[in-house]
Write a structure and sequence with these properties.
The chain is α+β, with helices and mostly antiparallel strands and about 110 residues long. It has one domain (about 10-105). About 50% of the residues lie in helices and about 20% in strands. It has helices at about 35-45, 65-80, 85-105, and strands spanning about 10-15, 20-25, 25-30, 50. A four-stranded mixed β-sheet has the order 3-2-1-4. The model has no long low-confidence stretch (mean pLDDT about 90).
Length: about 110
């Protein structure tokens, strides 16, 4: 979670023509990313303000890194764009479940 006054988290980074992702406060090559890392990133995107280096503004020379990075970048950008819709949907589902629980409680 983002702390007051903390800088934004940069989840995807390009440096020296290589693609990296943030894992445990360190940047790892994008080709090493796994399902758990992506889930953590999605939680960051929903809960915090994050930044992503744009792969269309910087070169990634390794083709595998480039493909993985571009795909994640697109998915993360879409998630950021629909963040409010996702949170609203979660709130609505929670309210429905909570109201159903209150009915059973009586």
């Amino acid at each position: 979670m983002k702390k007051e006054g903390a800088s934004m988290i940069n989840l995807l980074k390009i440096k020296d023509e290589k693609g990296y992702f943030l894992k445990d406060d360190e940047y790892k090559l994008i080709t090493l990313i796994d399902r758990e890392d992506i889930l953590k990133h999605l939680n960051y995107i929903v809960d915090d303000e994050v930044t992503l280096d744009n792969p269309y503004e910087q070169k990634i020379s390794n083709e595998a890194q480039k493909l993985i990075y571009e795909d994640l970048y697109k998915q993360y950008i879409e998630t950021q764009a629909s963040k409010n819709d996702i949170l609203d949907e979660i709130d609505e589902l929670f309210k429905e479940k909570l109201s159903g629980y209150k009915i059973l409680e009586k």
